[in-house]
Each structure stands twice: as C-alpha cells, then as structure tokens.
Batch of 2 targets.
Target 1
Amino acid sequence: MLKRILIANRGEIAVRIIRACRELSVETIAVYTESDREELHTMLADRAVCIGRDRPESGYLNMENIIEAAKLTGCDAIHPGFGFLSENPRFAEMCEENDIVFIGPNSSVISLLGDKIRARQIVSQAGVSIVPGSDGPLPGIEEAKQCARKIGYPVMIKASAGGGGRGMRRAESEEELENAMMEAKTEAEVSFGDGTIYMEKLITDPKHIEFQILADSFGNIIHLGDRNCCVQRRNQKMLEEAPDFRLSDEMRTKMGRDAVLAAKTAGYENAGTVEFIVDGSDYYFIEMNTRLQVEHPVTEMITGTDIVKQQIRIASGLRLNMAQQDIVIRGHSIECRVCAEDIYNDYAPDPSEINFLHLPSGLGVRVESALYSGMRISPFYDSMILKVITYGDTRLEAVRRMRRALGETIIRGCKTNLPVLQLILYNREFLRGDYNTGFMEKHGDHLLELYDAAGGRLNESV
Ligand code: ADP
Ligand code: ADP
Ligand code: MG
C-alpha cells in the first residue's frame, strides 16, 4: 500500500481525499498557495507545503513545484483530485519520470481520452455508438458545411480538448455555422490552449447518463452503475442523482457493458467515468473523464463503495476486491452542488467572507465541504463550496431528505445558489424523474419568478 500521498488540490475534494487516506493509515501532504494558507485542507493534512502564488500557473497548476514538494516530503504518490492537473498528461508523465505514482490512469491514456476526437474514434471502432458527427477535426467552414448537410441540423461544434462545458456552440442552420465555429475555437484556444474543433449532431434535450468505472492493473474492469446528471446550467452540472429513475434494466445493462468496453478499449486503469447522452432508446458515448468526478458520492451511497479508497488501492498495485456481480445497487442518492454565486446576477461568483455557518446532518445526509465560520471564500478558484448528498430507500425519500437538508443549511455572508437547488426539488417535472438536459433552460428563470412571487416560500406548484 502507498504510504504518503501529496494531494494536489484544494477545497472540499482535498478534504475528501484526506478522509480516505486517514482511514487507510496513509499519510497526507497538502499543498497551498499564499492566500490559501488558512484553508481547511492545510489544517487537516498531516503536513502542508506552500507551492507558490495564487495565479494558476504559479500555484495549483505549477507542475515543477508540486513534484518538488512531493519529493521533499518523501511522498510515494500524488492524488490530483479533479480540475487543475487531474487530466494533464504531461503532469502524469512527470510523476512517472520522478518515480511518483500518479493516482489515475497513465499519461498516454489521459492523453488519448483527453482528445475527444480520438476517444470517439477508438470507442466507435470497438462497437460503442457515438453521436453522428465529423470523423476527425474540422479544418474549415467548407468541410463543416458538408458534414452538417450529411448529419442534418442542428449541430454542435465542440472543442476536442474541451471540459467544464466550455468550447461548445450550437448551430441551428448553415447561417449560424461559421460563427459557432469561431466562438468554439476561440474559447477553446483561451481555455485549453488548443483550438481543435469537431462536429456532433445536436441531440435535442437528451439525458446525460454516465457510468462509474473501476479498473485495476490486472485488466479487471467493472462499473458501479449509472448517474443522471441532467440538471445542468450552460452544460455544467448542478445536481446529480443515482441511479437514473427511468432507465430500463435492459438499457442499463447494455450501457454498463458499453462503458466497460470503452474503458477496456482505451487500456484504462483506476477510476473513471464514461459519459453518454441518451435520446429515447438510443444512447451515444460523448466522452470519458479520466479522473475522480465531482458527483462520485452518489455512486458511493448506493453501492457502499469508497471510490477514493479504491483509487488508492488500485494505484498501490492491488487487485480489485470485487467483481461485477458483487455490485448491488441499493436505494437512491442525490447530490446538490452549492456554489457561492449570485443567482440574481447571472450566477456571478460571490467570493465573500462566511460569517455564520450551519451545515446539515441527520440520518441519510452527507456533507462534503471545506467550509468554516469566518473563512473567506477565495476569488481565485471555482465557486463550488459545498456538496450536500442525501440517501434514501426510495427516490422520494432522498428528495424529501434533500429538501430538509438544504433547509437546514445556513450560510451567511455570501450569496449562494441554495434557493435554486431547493426549487428544483419541488418542480413537478423533476419529481416525475423524466427530465432532461433542457431542464434548467426551460425552468431556470421561471423557478426564480415563482420563488419571488411566493415571497421566498417553497411549495409544490413550481
Ligand atoms: P464533473 O462534474 O463531471 O466531474 P466538470 O466538467 O464539472 O466535471 O469539472 C469538474 C471540476 O473541474 C469542476 O470543479 C470544474 O470547475 C473543473 N474543471 C473542469 N474543466 C476544467 C478546465 N478545463 N479548467 C479548469 N477547471 C476545470
Ligand atoms: P465537457 O467535457 O465539457 O463535460 P461533454 O462532451 O461531456 O463536455 O458535454 C457536456 C454536456 O453538453 C452534456 O452533458 C450535454 O448536456 C451537452 N452536450 C454535449 N454534446 C451534445 C450533443 N451532441 N447534443 C446535445 N447535447 C450535448
Ligand atoms: Mg462531460
């Protein structure tokens, strides 16, 4: 087993990883930037090392400093969490060069799957269906027009290096195509330093359903069931649940098999997620994320498996201690991503000081957070500050428990998206469980209006 792990991340996910390490008696080294000195992860880890200033390239993205910190503190592994360096093949390679275990797949697999065009090609060759689209990158407008005529409008232009919902633009018709390409390309260049774009048919209001994968270094690969991540704003997830309420057993079995096949084809190792979009009884692979995911807790709740511990076991060279038939899905789980945002100002981040905090608890409630009263939320990083997860024997129980848990959550000093999350839990369409990725576009503004009209009170008429 690994002995000492450096956690190259911050916030709730760094705390989540420290928890798993503690229970495994693995020592932890936190890293932090100058203004993050007082963050919770620096206090909970066995040791903490400053790695630089707050600008991303000199802090949590500073590969040299992080590797140096790992060497100086005698770490045998680095856990990258999500975001930051978690999907950076060069960083995984630097770990390999320095004899440090990178907790994730190897650098060539990260590089292969991080290139969405290549990922589409290899999984499709293995027989997994992908969204109809371009065979490779789009070199120019003429090729794009030709491809769009073949697959039919509307289409989606996507960045091959894309992530976090960025570098993606729709085009409803040929007139919109050039502009969509330019916008997607520019955003991709700015965000990912790579402007390569490709085309997919735009599936109207699909469902986003993904499968959690675990793969060891002996070629054993299993999945831990599905998650529904349809509540999205600007293609970014807000609330997730597992399992999907409406998926037939037949589709679940087929999709799970394809998810494992996709991972196997890529030579995958460690934890990962295969994402699909679902249109009626058709489903299409969209990408594979080569890291721990924000929403991993809902899978942990319904399978009783600690995914972070599994990651550490796998990276230690241990065999998977369970087979596919051992995975039993029990009950239902929901996660809400609480963000420090002003919902009345286009969800602009509100990094203020938290002057009073009360987090929910009680039966079936789990909190993943790095918050404490009196802390200042950093303006330099993601606005997600807290995850509230509930478990119930049934979906309805998980929903009612989440309403209760969010109701108990008191955060004073900064604005949050809590009211919107609460309103979703009262929405009839959501309650029926047959909503899709168009949910927030359809209901987002309306939810707020109803909330205002009711003077901030919640009821089931939304
Ligand atoms: P998921 O929720 O499926 O794990 P997301 O795409 O929402 O994946 O991203 C997970 C985390 O990583 C989020 O906190 C997000 O801000 C961050 N993230 C994703 N892509 C990028 C990126 N290209 N650059 C910086 N952070 C990113
Ligand atoms: P990212 O890497 O940013 O997570 P994804 O390819 O996973 O990008 O897509 C993110 C979300 O965008 C999906 O969950 C879905 O809601 C939407 N999306 C992506 N591709 C399509 C498509 N071809 N048609 C419709 N919606 C799509
Ligand atoms: Mg995705």
Note: The chain has a mean pLDDT of 96.
Target 2
Amino acid sequence: MDPGGIDYNELKRQAARAALQFVEDGVIGVGTGSTVNHFIDLLAQVKDRVQGAVSSSQASSLRLEALGIPVLDLNEVGWLDLYVDGADEANRRLELIKGGGGALTREKIVAAASRRFVCIADESKLVEELGRFPLPIEIIPMARSLITAKLQELGGRPQLRQGFVTDNGNQILDVHGLHINDPVGLEKELNNIPGVVCVGIFALRPADVLLLGTTEGVRVLSREGAA
Ligand code: 5RP
C-alpha cells in the first residue's frame, strides 16, 4: 500500500490474472519480477494445460519448479507462442524499460523468440517518455570504464549496481538522466558499444499487449499490427 492508499501489489496481481486468458496449451515464456511472481502462482492453478515454461531467470525457474511447472531449455523448444513479463516503464507504443530485476538479457532473448509478448504491470509504469526509471545495461566487467565514458558523452549518469552479478556473470550499470525520445535509435546506438551485453530498452521488440492493473480494473493496450 503506498501513502496515497493505492495497493500496487493488488494492481500487479490483477494484471497477472488478466494474462491467464492468453495462455494456451503448450510451452510458455515466463519473465521475472514481483508482477510475474503473481503470474507464476496463478499459472500453477492451470498447470495441467502447461507443458512447461522457458524462464528468463534463475529466480523464476526456482519458483516455477517449486510449483511443479517444468522449466525447459529455449534451444529445445524453438519458437514460443506467448511470453509474459513485467516492465519498469512502458510508453503508449508499448516500448519498455526493463531490467530492474537484472534479468534483462534473458528477458530480451525470450521476448525475441516469442510470437506474442504480453506485458503485465501496475498503472504507475505507464509514462509519456521512457527514462525516468534509470536505464539498466548489462555489461562485460572489463568494459565498464569505456562504457561509462560513452554513456556520459550521451548525457547519462551511469551507476554501477553494487553487489549485483547477473545470472550470466556480468555487471549492471543503471543510467540516470537519459531522455529517451527515440527508443529504437538509442537501443541500436547503445547495442553498438563494445562490451554492452544488453540494453534495457525493449523497443526493437516491444510488447504486443500491455495489461495495466488500475484502481478501475485492468486496462488493455495493444500495439498496432501486433500478433
Ligand atoms: C526484471 C524486469 C521486471 O520485469 C521489472 O523490473 C518489473 O518488475 P516488477 O514486476 O517487480 O515491478 O525487467 O529484470
């Protein structure tokens, strides 16, 4: 419950519940975070329809397995029909900032391998312009000072996420102060810096559907031309 009296945890649960309608028989891609944790818990209730899940993090894998949902290797599965994941920010074009939980690289891989990406979030995540949330970037540790300098040239203020190692053994820079008015362009530009493993802008492959938990129920936003 926040000081304004809004129970954001309940709004996350609402969005997660709404995502269940997209689940069909077969294998499902599952993201990471507190909103997705609600989704995993609800998925367990329909697990007879779910053959297994491709997971975007060790944390989600542990939760899935504890609830009796088999975790499968993406290489064995190939394409997925559905990926469900949360976001730190979303704009109206369903471009996202992700990586607050540090799982952005695997999240981007699973999103890219999925025909439909359903994003679940509470209403506070919808923004006019991405960038108030510090942009997470997963980096190879030896390139940290090089990448820091390049990000500063772009007007960002990168901060090393202290005491954090990704599931891939890398570090995260959280970049403050970027104006992300061209998410696709910035995602491409940052992808080109040597040593960058993954940028937390999901604009080249945005979400197809955004389910927002609001105090007035679940709001559905769909991307034009999406599957
Ligand atoms: C993890 C993510 C999460 O989807 C994002 O941080 C949102 O988390 P939450 O559902 O806890 O608000 O990108 O890397």
Note: The chain is about 30% helix and 30% strand.
